[in-house]
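User: Fold both of these, please.

Assistant: Here is the first one.
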Amino acid sequence: GVLGIEKDLADPHASERFNKFPTIAHNHHAMDLLVGSLRLFVDGVVNAFDLDKLMETEIETHHKEVATIPSLVNKMSDAMPGIGIVAAVLGIIITMQHIDGPPSEIGHHVAAALVGTFLGILLSYGYLQPISSSIEMMQHETHVLLNAIRAAVVSFAGGAPPAVALEFARKSIEHDMRPTAEEMEEINQMVRKG
């Protein structure tokens, strides 16, 4: 029953039950949300409605906290072409100092100026923006996971049987990431076997 998980909640990182699911066990945000909400439920501190509001608040707070990371990377990305332009202007200034030199020397300095522009654009569009997008995608996947945990815990706290609570969680997952009903049944059977 529900009281049978108290040992798992007391030391979740040593829990065999939690460690069967590395996606959750190795995600400290997911573990904090799951363990914290289950503790409140097992201790009888909150009802399902209040638990839902509490979990919603925790997920929103987490989302706001992590949203700053890709935003900062995007700001750096936006600055890189400007830095490239500054490098180009400085390169042209240096070129002007050698304007009376041979064409090969002038060509060398102009090329250096253009490399600065190219590097600014490459860093922006070739590295920083893809990194920012990748971070956003990972954060989105974590957000989906946290909402699935919320759906399962709240429905279970509201009196739904475990299989129905898992279906609530499954339905909260977007179609491209959602496991099929058959995959969920396989997971259920694996859990029942221990």
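And the second sequence with its predicted structure:
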Amino acid sequence: MAVALAVAVPPPALAAIDRQVVRPSDTDGTISAGIEPYIVYSVRGDAPGPLLVFIPGTGGETPKTAKTEQAFIGTALAHGYRVIVLSYIDTPAIAQVCTKRVLANDPACAEQVRQKRAFGDDTTARINDAPQDAIVHRLTALIRYLAAHDAGDHWEQYLAGTRLNWRAIVLSGQSQGGGMAAYIAKRIAIGGVIDFSGGWDMRSDDDIASWYSTPSATPPERWYGTYHVDEKFASAIAASYRAMGIPASHQFPLSKPVRHPEGKNPGHGEGASNPVYRGIWETMLTGLARH
């Protein structure tokens, strides 16, 4: 289905961007794993807009992610978003935990791992993440920290009391991180989802995980997803987007030439990093800003 792309807006000048690096342990002294720094961006002098939280993929390392995805981050800033690149325990990957042998006896493995890694619930012993390691806890602690230490920047708008004001927050991510964004949005009504090749959780050799087709707290018009047609698991990702009910006009199968065709999974990282897709980024970002 043809989609009208937004008119390109140049990213803000680097001098106008405030960039903070925050250690997870500064926001919660009990966090001792997954200690890559949080990286926080805002445009100096702008009124605070929606918050885009980018969740890296497996082994993503937030400084590396911030560099690789800098064009997407700059585009979000140009459209009035604040941006956080959030670290978490991103290894082992879901597919490394929920192997074919495991799935034969535990087809819900992927959902159990995501529930623990996202929300901190004790749903599985297959990963060692502690409750304070969970993505939602980390983000909450970071926003509270920013609200307390940068009072003039009004980070409190992303809180509702002591909890997150989810309607002001858009979750995005690459690979495992995109899947985490989607998993959280299934369970909590958030401002929106931008899922870049968000994983391929399975319940068997041939079937995607059941959680993809469960009811969603976040309505379908607030979902977007991309994947490259040349990546290894494109068909499974496309099936997951259909199962999650992402509107066809909000799904973007990418097909521009891959920059590193010699890679292990060519095309897998293109959606969030290749500036040739800036028009699609703008369509997704502006679409969510309207809701």
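Residues 1-9 have pLDDT under 50 and may be disordered.
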